[in-house]
Specification:
Chain lengths: 134, 151
C-alpha cells in the first residue's frame, strides 16, 4: 500500500477563467441539461433571476478536474457536495481541497479530502468532499 | 406538496450508449484537456476501453431518458421553482465511450422544511453495464423546491 498524503495536505488549486455565456451554452450541449435558466437570459429574468447562471453540475465538474489532476480518477470512490450559492457570468472561480482524514469509511487505505469552489471574493459556491483509495 | 406515497417509486429504466463525440464535447465544456478524456490511443494506453468519462459525466446520462422530464411531471414537481441542492456519486468502475449502460431512477425520499416552504426530493440513479448488470456508479441528487406557503 502506498503512503497516504498527510492530513492537512493542500491539493493544487484549480483557477478557472471568468465564467462566460459561451461556456454555459457548451455545457448545456455537452451535459444534455437544456434548462433555459442557464442559457436564456429572458427566461431567467422572467423566473426572477437577474441573469442566466451556471449549472451547479458544471461547478462540480471543475472540482472533479482538480481532484483527478491530483490523483488518478480510477482511485476516486466517492464525490459529493452541496450547491450553496448561484454563480453568474463574469464571476471567477477557484477550486481548492485539503486532506482531512485517513481511513475514511473505516477502510485503512482510503483518504478523504474536503473541497470548496469559491469566487474571487471567497464566497463559496460548492462545498463537499471526496474519498480516494490510495 | 408532493405525495409522499411516491417514496420508493421507480421509473422505466432506459439503455444508453456512451458516445465518443459527446464525451469530447463535455470535456471541452468543462475545460478538460488531458488526453485520456480526448484521445482514444491515450485512453487505451492508460488501460481504459476507450475515452474515459470525467467523474461527473455519469449523471448526464439522466438527460437521455426517452421520457424526458416526464418523471418530474409524474411527481408534480414545478420545474421553474426547482434547484439542485446536493449531489453524491459512488463509483464502482470506469465509464468509457462505447459502453452500453442501463439507467434506472428511483425516488429515495421526499421531505420538507420550514413548514413546507422548502420541499426536497432525493433521487437515486443507478448506472449498470447493460451486458452483465455490473454496477458502474450510483448518482444521488437532492432537489429543492421553493413552495409558496400561506401565512
Amino acid at each position: 500500500m502506498s503512503i497516504l498524503p498527510p492530513i492537512g495536505t493542500a491539493l493544487p488549486a484549480l483557477t478557472l477563467p471568468p465564467l462566460n455565456r459561451a461556456t454555459l451554452a457548451l455545457y448545456a450541449g455537452g451535459s444534455g441539461d437544456h434548462v433555459p435558466l442557464h442559457i436564456d437570459a429572458a427566461f431567467a429574468k422572467n423566473a426572477g433571476y437577474p441573469d442566466v447562471f451556471m449549472h451547479g453540475m458544471l461547478g462540480m465538474a471543475y472540482v472533479g478536474r482538480m481532484l483527478t489532476e491530483w490523483m488518478p480518477q480510477s482511485r476516486l470512490k466517492q464525490f459529493s457536495g452541496r450547491f450553496v450559492a448561484i454563480t453568474y457570468p463574469d464571476e471567477q472561480l477557484t477550486a481548492t481541497g485539503r486532506v482531512v482524514e485517513h481511513g475514511a469509511g473505516g477502510v485503512p487505505g482510503q483518504l478523504r479530502v474536503d473541497v470548496t469552489l469559491a469566487n474571487a471574493a471567497g464566497e463559496p459556491k460548492f462545498t463537499g468532499g471526496a474519498v480516494f483509495e490510495a | 406538496m408532493i405525495d409522499r406515497a411516491n417514496i420508493g417509486r421507480t421509473f422505466p429504466p432506459f439503455e444508453v450508449e456512451v458516445d465518443k463525440s459527446r464525451l469530447r464535447l463535455f470535456a471541452k465544456a468543462i475545460g478538460e484537456t488531458r488526453p485520456v478524456y480526448l484521445d482514444e490511443a491515450a485512453a487505451r494506453a492508460a488501460g481504459y476501453r476507450s475515452l474515459l468519462a470525467p467523474p461527473t459525466f455519469v449523471n448526464c446520462l439522466a438527460a437521455d431518458d426517452p421520457r424526458g422530464f416526464q418523471y418530474l411531471q409524474d411527481l408534480g414537481v414545478p420545474m421553474a421553482r426547482m434547484l439542485h441542492a446536493e449531489q453524491t456519486f459512488n463509483y464502482r468502475g470506469p465509464l468509457c465511450a462505447g459502453d452500453r449502460v442501463v439507467v434506472e431512477r428511483r425516488v429515495a425520499d421526499i421531505y420538507d422544511k420550514k413548514g413546507g416552504a422548502l420541499e426536497f426530493i432525493r433521487f437515486e440513479l443507478t448506472v449498470r453495464n447493460a451486458a452483465d448488470g455490473t454496477l458502474i456508479a450510483d448518482c444521488i441528487s437532492l432537489l429543492a423546491i421553493r413552495n409558496e406557503v400561506a401565512r
